[in-house]
From TrEMBL:
GO molecular function list: carbon-sulfur lyase activity; metal ion binding
Residue ranges annotated for the CENP-V/GFA domain, each copy included: 107-245
The organism's place on the tree of life at top rank: Eukaryota
Family affiliation: Belongs to the Gfa family.
Protein name stated in the entry: Mss4-like protein
Keywords (A to Z) from UniProt: Lyase, Metal-binding, Zinc
Record bears the keyword Zinc: yes
Residue segments, region Disordered: 57-83
Length: 261
């Protein structure tokens, strides 16, 4: 049994099985990295001597969090079961869904300690990227972040909302506020960044088989199409992939060595 003191205190997990209301996620979801856009967009040399101060000022430029979300998990008469601050448990990817509703499982994943597990019903993400922003370097303790975009309804936590911890980096709060970073509350493995409509899942947590064939299939499924915030990179990656100095589609395109093209 998990040590309940170490986990988010959630007395009950949602078990809502309501008819799925389809909704189309928008691709222009504001993700966590957008909070860094102001420091790098349209700058040729985005590693500024003010980087440290800007990082600390990020919260001042935070987008509004917690905007209205579609709420497919709550059926008529059930909304009052959940206090407002726990309504997120009734929405994808946290609400518990039936096998029939979720469909065929294409991938399974989980944290290092095994307490948090999830499933995906989509073979390939909409897009995968490496993010080199300072925030990702710090929060992940890594040279860059590897993230794969999935609509929220493609993901289902096998244990619902149990055992998760949140960190909304733009507001520096561990309260559940979007956008937020989602990790295992016990081993602290980063699982995903949750935006308003999409999740940026970290493919390193996805399980694949023991064979080389399985390994290659995993690599191929989550291969990146571009690098973002390459202006803040900790190393050059000469892979020939598209590179943006800041946010994709909203900054300068640069070559493998950061030179504007
Ligand atoms: Zn864990
Ligand atoms: Zn980032």
């Amino acid at each position: 049994m998990m040590n309940s003191r170490l986990f988010t205190q959630l007395k009950s997990r949602p078990t809502v099985f309501s008819h799925h209301t389809s909704w189309l996620p928008r691709l222009d979801t504001i993700f966590l990295c957008r909070t860094y856009t102001h420091t790098t967009t349209r700058t040729k040399h985005s590693i500024s001597p003010l980087a440290s101060r800007q990082l600390h000022n990020m919260a001042d430029d935070a987008p509004d969090g917690g905007g209205p979300l579609p709420n497919p998990g709550v059926g008529p008469g059930s909304a009052d079961k959940y206090p407002k601050e726990l309504e997120w448990q009734t929405r994808p990817p946290y609400r518990v869904v039936s096998r029939d509703e979720f469909g065929e499982v294409k991938w399974k994943g989980g944290c290092h300690c095994g307490r948090v597990t999830y499933e995906l019903n989509r073979e390939q993400p909409l897009k995968a990227k490496y993010c080199h922003c300072r925030g990702c370097q710090i929060v992940h303790g890594a040279p860059f972040q590897w993230a794969a975009i999935f609509p929220k309804s493609d993901i289902s936590f096998t244990n619902g909302s149990d055992g998760l911890a949140f960190y909304a980096s733009d507001r520096k709060t561990t309260k559940y506020e979007l956008p937020t970073k989602v990790s295992c509350a016990y081993c602290r493995t980063p699982i995903m960044d949750e935006g308003r409509n999409m999740c940026l899942l970290f493919p390193g947590t996805i399980h694949f088989g023991d064979s080389e064939e399985d390994h290659q299939a995993w690599k191929k499924a989550f291969e990146i199409s571009c690098h973002i915030f390459y202006g803040q990179r900790s190393l050059d990656i000469p892979d020939g992939k598209q590179k943006w100095s800041g946010m994709d589609e909203n900054s300068d395109l640069v070559d493998d060595y950061g030179k504007e093209i």
